[in-house]
Structure formats: structure tokens, C-alpha cells
Design a protein that fits this description.
- This protein has a 4-stranded antiparallel β-sheet.
- α1 packs antiparallel against α4, α2 runs antiparallel to α3 and α3 packs parallel to α5.
- By secondary structure, the chain is α+β, with helices and mostly antiparallel strands.
- About 5% of the residues have low confidence.
- The chain is globular and about 60 Å long.
- The chain has one domain.
- The chain contains 5 helices and 4 strands.
Amino acid sequence: MVIANILPVLIVPLLGWRFYSRYRKLVGVQTVRPFKLWASVCAFPAILLLTGIATLAQTATFEGLLLGAAAGFALALLGLKLTAYQAGDSGLSYTPNMFIGMALSMLFFSRVVYRGYQIYTASATQTSLPLTTTPLTMAVVGLILAYYPTYSAGILRWRKRMGGQAAESVPVGNKQM
């Protein structure tokens, strides 16, 4: 058997396991970790900018990236409104909206699997298949790259406002964001 036939059998379960473990970390109660939040606020916009520069010559993919980024920004604002914020004796924590986290994870996972399938099937006929050629892929990339820094900035903003206050619980949907 050729290694090209065995590779998907090995990679797909590995990708599935990584996405599942990542998903499990994203849907439960999260402790506020400022370093991770700041890393997201700084790194993702830089990657979005570089991706935008790389796709600038391809109008459709650039527009897909911009539309995805706009949708990611709006979805993050909605996600912040639907987040449950908690301040307790053990520190600050929050619970992201499960449905938004699940939708983002599944969208990203399905797009990665689809593009992997395209690359795998094209490898027999083409020498290369660029990853930035489809507007839909760039829309998903823009969505992810805009959602996480916006959401992280909102959590950091809430953390700053909570600094020095007594322990209390803020219910889901509270506009205290």
C-alpha cells in the first residue's frame, strides 16, 4: 500500500481527536488567564493582517476574508452578551456560550477536512493546490481570526472592571460586559 493511501487514515482521527479536545476546553467554565487573552488579542489580528496582505491580489478571497472578519467581530459581540461571568473566591471565570463555541469548532473542522480532501484528491493530478484560493476558506479564516481577539478583549475589559470588587456572580445575558 502506498503511503498516500495510509496518510488520511492516520491524520483524520488525529485531527478529530485534537478538535474534540480543543472543543472540550472551550465550552466549559474558563478561568480568566490574562496572558492567554492578551496573546489572542495581539497574535490573531497580526495573522489576520498578514493573511489580508497575502490575499490582497485575489479580490474574491480578500473579500471573503473581510466578510468573515466582519461576521467574526459581530459574533464575538453576541458571544460576550451571552457569556456567563463569575467572580468568586477562587478568582474570575466565565462560561462562553456553548452553541457559538460548538458552531465555530464544527465550521472550522469541516472546512479543514474538506480542504484536506481537496488537496488529497488533487495531489494525483496537480503539483500544488494553494490554501488561500477559495473565498469560503478565507471567510472561515477571517471569522476565526476576528472572533477570538474580539472575544478575548471583551473578557479583558470585564476583568478590568471587576478588579477590586467583591465576589459576585453575574448571570447569563447581563449587560455588565
